[in-house]
């Protein structure tokens, strides 16, 4: 009957909400039940039937079976989201149209020396790629007081041009003179602050995409050391990229692990044990690596450090620098997928298994 064929097509389209493995196992049974219960002359699914089929199908796609399945999906999805958040931050930063400031040019060096009134004792030039900066910048401890310092509305990229001046006359008021000069030259400046953790005086100034930090530390009553640091300004859009990557990670990982959990429940016991042999180390690596990533990004509560845009790239930098966790996770995931895909295939195609070798008993 034409209406029966049209009704069947309507139900089959709605059954696409279910995962394929479930359609293979129960699809014909559900379709037959729906057709048997249909009213005479019905040519399409009712609104109630459509809602039920779609919601039930999404439940199979998005709700893992059992408590263990939900925990596994949560751990794997969180790790994927955190790492892809780092990828999103990196992509947003790398695609930014902001022009990096020339922090190592002669103009910068001359300005710093003029502000202090003497040549430096040591100069460090910031270098390294974005991921190197994201991974290692906290080891210097240079930005632990940033939250207590008065920045002029922007934040620095934590890799710059650092100049140290020793044996500076402490009676000259170097910071005050430098602050007045920079203001006169059109720099946007903060005020001199003295964070309690270091007892130093420090101020920030910005102009032309450049951030200048000047700080002193008293070595004696007559002498002090002064540092003048130059940094590029971090680009806009990096937090947005991190949030987008985080959301994409959840969208990709949760249904994938839910699918694996459902398939795991449908394979023989021996294959389930083999599945867990690979899955448990992978999940442990996800959990440990996620904790490491989050703790490394979050500012230390015992300091005045703040979350910088570069910190949002740390989860990606961590995978590149220390690939053990991502290797364990990748191998475990590939093995689990292989087990749940190959086992049902062999059940459907037993002829693919090699025939057992003849024995003396069978020959006799």
Walk me through what this model shows.
A hairpin with a 2-residue loop joins strand 4 (201-207) and strand 5. This protein has a six-stranded antiparallel sheet with strand order 1-2-6-5-4-3, with helices on one face. It is α+β, with helices and mostly antiparallel strands. 55% of the residues lie in helices and 11% in strands. It has three domains: 2-62; 67-90 and 241-348, no CATH class; 106-232, no CATH class. The longest helix is centred in the first third of the chain and has 29 residues, at 66-94.
Short summary of the structure?
The protein is α+β, with helices and mostly antiparallel strands and about 375 residues long. The protein is built from twelve helices and six strands. The protein has a six-stranded antiparallel β-sheet with strand order 1-2-6-5-4-3, with helices on one face.
Comma- or semicolon-separated keywords:
364 residues, disordered C terminus, alpha+beta, 3 domains, 6-stranded antiparallel β-sheet, 6 strands
Summarize the SSE layout with pairings.
Elements lengths: L1 H14 L4 H18 L9 H16 L3 H29 L11 H11 L5 E4 L4 H7 L24 E9 L4 H11 L3 E2 L11 E7 L2 E9 L4 E10 L5 H27 L4 H29 L16 H8 L2 H25 L11 H4 L1
Antiparallel strand pairs: 1-2, 2-6, 3-4, 4-5, 5-6
Helix pairs in contact: 1-2, 4-8, 4-9, 4-10, 6-10, 9-11
The helicity comes to 40-55%
Total number of helices: 12
**Proportion of strand residues:** 5-15%
Query: Distance between termini?
Result: 59 Å
Number of domains: 3
- The sequence of SSEs as H and E is HHHHHEHEHEEEEHHHHH
Query: Main beta sheet, described?
Result: 6 strands, antiparallel
Number of strands: 6
Radius of gyration: 31 Å
Assign an overall shape. elongated
Question: Which class best fits the helix and strand makeup?
Answer: alpha+beta
Side-by-side strand order of the widest sheet: 1-2-6-5-4-3
What is the residue-averaged pLDDT? 86
- Low-pLDDT stretches are 352-364
């Amino acid at each position: 009957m034409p209406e029966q064929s049209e009704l069947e097509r309507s139900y089959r389209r709605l059954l696409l909400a279910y995962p394929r493995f479930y359609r293979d196992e129960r699809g014909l049974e559900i379709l037959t039940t729906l057709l048997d219960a249909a009213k005479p002359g019905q040519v399409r699914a009712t609104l109630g039937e459509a809602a039920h089929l779609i919601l039930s199908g999404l439940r199979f796609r998005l709700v893992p079976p059992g408590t263990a399945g939900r925990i596994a999906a949560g751990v794997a999805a969180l790790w994927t989201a955190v790492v892809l958040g780092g990828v999103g931050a990196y992509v947003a930063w790398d695609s930014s149209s902001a022009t990096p400031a020339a922090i190592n040019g002669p103009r910068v060096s001359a300005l710093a020396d003029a502000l202090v009134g003497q040549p430096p004792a040591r100069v460090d030039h910031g270098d390294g790629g974005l991921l190197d900066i994201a991974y290692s910048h906290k080891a210097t401890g240079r930005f632990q007081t940033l939250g207590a310092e008065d920045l002029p509305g922007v934040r620095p990229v934590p890799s710059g041009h650092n100049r140290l001046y020793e044996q500076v006359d402490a009676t000259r008021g170097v910071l005050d003179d430098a602050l007045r000069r920079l203001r006169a030259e059109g720099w946007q400046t903060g005020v001199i602050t003295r964070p309690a953790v270091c007892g130093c005086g420090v101020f920030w100034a910005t102009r032309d995409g450049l951030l200048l930090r000047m700080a002193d530390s008293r070595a004696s009553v007559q002498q002090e050391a002064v540092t003048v640091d130059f940094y590029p300004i971090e680009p806009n859009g990096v937090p947005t990229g991190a949030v987008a990557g985080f959301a994409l990670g959840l969208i990709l990982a949760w249904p994938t692990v839910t699918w694996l959990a459902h398939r795991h429940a449908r394979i023989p016991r021996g294959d389930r044990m083999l599945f867990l042999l690979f899955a448990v180390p992978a999940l442990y690596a996800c959990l440990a690596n996620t904790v490491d990533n989050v703790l490394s990004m979050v500012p230390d509560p015992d300091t005045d450090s703040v979350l910088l845009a570069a910190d949002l790239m740390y989860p990606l930098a961590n995978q590149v620098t220390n690939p053990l966790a991502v290797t364990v996770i990748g191998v475990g995931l590939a093995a689990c997928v292989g087990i749940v895909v190959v086992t049902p295939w062999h059940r459907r195609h037993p002829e693919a298994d090699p025939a057992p070798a003849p024995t003396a008993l069978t020959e006799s």
